[in-house]
Amino acid sequence: MSLMFTGIGVSRGIAMGPAYIYRRDAIEITPVKIAAKDVPREVRRYNAAVKSARMHLMAVRDGIPDSASEDVSAFIETHLLMLEDSVLSQRPVELIKQHRVYAERALQMQREALTNVFAEMEDPYISTRIDDVNHVIDEIMRSFSTAKSTGRSARKQQTDWKGMIVIADDLTPSDTLIMQSQGVAGFVTETGGQLSHTAILARSIGIPAIVGVHNIRSYIEQGEDLVVDGDSGTLLAEAEPEMLTGFKRRQKADRQHQKDLTQLIDTPAITKDGVELSLQANIEVEDDIKSLKRVKADGVGLYRTEFLYLNRDDVPDEEEHLKVYLRVLRALKGAPLTIRTVDLGADKQMTAKDIGPLAHNPAMGLRGIRLCLSDTTLLIPQLRAILRASARGPINIMFPMLTNLQEVLQCRALVESVKDALRARGFKFDENIQIGGMIEVPSAAIAADQFARHLDFLSIGTNDLIQYTLAIDRIDDQVDYLYDPLHPAVLRLIRMTIEAGKKENIPVAMCGEMAGDARFVRLLLGLGLTRFSTPPNQLLEIKRMLTTSGYKQLQKQSKAIVDSESTERQLKLLQKMNANATPTLH
Ligand code: PEP
Ligand code: MG
Asked: Residue 346, Cβ neighbours under 10 Å: how many?
């Protein structure tokens, strides 16, 4: 009989594959037998874990202070030598092949064998060396997961997640990125909400994901075959064959739909009544440019640069920023690039730098521009690099998390002082670089007219705007039920921002997830929004919705949705509005 678990579907699509139970602190080993085809993968995982353990030990050795006794480094050297010994470097690989087990299980078997050998030794000195063996084995074991206690991140381990459904308590954005780069099939987490950065990342990279499936790790076994339905937020174990057939059919229909959408790539982005649209893409890492180009987006509306700061032990300097921005510019071939200055804090924590004392409420604490203005050493190298890159292609600067006009003015002054410094050193840059601000705090939306007078463009960040307007933590699944982009307060703030931009004659875009949600984009167009920045893989669906609608016709309908006092009526109106092009959920 199949088992069904429900959570919050945060990234659409169906994924099928074996479970990979991911524990960041501990490793659970199940003696599940793996398929013969998976043996090479487990061998690769084992070798990668040994390599990662070696790198860690070498880093530890190099960090030993001169004042420490010789014995300390000798101890680490011994462990490094043991790591090279065939009992640890070769034998587990043979066990994987012989017994068809996961790499962790093979290492566990070898631990048991070695323990027995050492126990039989007469010499008390030699028999105590089993402790060293165990330390080295633990080192390898920890390399299979993110071992927070040793300060290592998932990037430094080389686990192969290809085709796997990762089941975790939670995933950091960095875990998510690394797993994606290795071809993970789907994500299921025990915690997290619609707007957690992990959810956003999963959507942006197009990997089916469900969050908030409480205690799921107690029910699923390593390697068990699973189906993730990101549309309905259900996870299935032991699915019946006829159910699997149904899922496969849906997967196929989905692929067909995606294929059909590609016909829109060269269609002009214009409404039926001739209103021109700007459809840009959000990117997190350089590699996203490839997907952006596939859908021929009109440039980058949001480059989340904080990902340059994650998974590393130091902070990127000006030259590193510059190199990345120049590469992105080159890849964009003249299309505009909006670089958001680093937005760290809350659920995007850096390992390299301690971001102050732990706040009770990090989402409301020192994050985004607040953090950067409190310590401009974080921001100045980035601003210098952005400005220097602006000499080579069209770049806009965008500041996140603005709360008051004071911050806007401080940011502008900082840009001016960086320009002065660059001028003095003879660097070239775009003197008229456009400076924009994100509207993602309710105070900024309410005072959007003032912001609009001091900025060159605005971009609405609905993820945070919704979180702060409705007082719901975007990563807390317990309050996810309150998440409501149709809440009249949210819609009014959006409308106020669009109108403020019109009044002051500056462009207003939206780069929050709502702009990439096909259910809402006609409503937004009806409110006067014509600039959308969405994850690349959602852009064509948004294009389909917008280019098949007429702006004038939507205006009245949108007003009725904003003014409505009943959610039921809002949904009915929305359904009517979307009737001729049923949107696929994101
Ligand atoms: C937003 O808040 O809507 C946004 C785009 O920024 P982020 O999701 O990176 O906080
Ligand atoms: Mg935000």
From this structure: 24
Give the integer Cα–Cα distance in Å for 188 and 228. Answer: 8
Residues with CB under 6 Å of ligand 1 are 200, 302, 304, 343, 440, 461-464, 511-512
CATH number at residue 59: 1.10.274.10
- Domain residues for 374? 269-577
CATH number at 478 reads: 3.20.20.60
Span 454-496, pLDDT tens digits? 999 999 999 999 999 999 988 788 888 899 999 999 999 999 9
Please answer whether residues 266 and 252 qualify as being in contact, where contact means their C-beta atoms are separated by less than 8 angstroms: no
Report if residue 571 sits inside a domain: yes
State pLDDT tens for residues 77-131: 888 888 999 999 999 999 999 999 889 889 989 998 988 888 787 766 666 677 6
Same domain, 198 and 315: no
Which protein residue's CA is at the shortest distance from atom 3 of ligand 1? Answer: 461
Cα–Cα distance measured from residue 59 to residue 80, given in angstroms and rounded to the nearest whole number: 11
This prediction's pTM: 0.73
228 inside domain? yes
- CA–CA distances in Å: residue 61 to residues 54, 56, 72, 149, 324: 10, 9, 9, 17, 32
Q: Count how many domains the chain has.
A: 2
Query: How high is the mean pLDDT of the chain?
Result: 88
Residue 255 covered by a domain: no
Could you identify the atom of ligand 1 that is nearest to the CA of residue 464? 2
Residues annotated as part of the active site? 197, 511
In a domain, 519, yes or no: yes
Q: Among the atoms of ligand 1, which is closest to the Cα of residue 460? A: 3
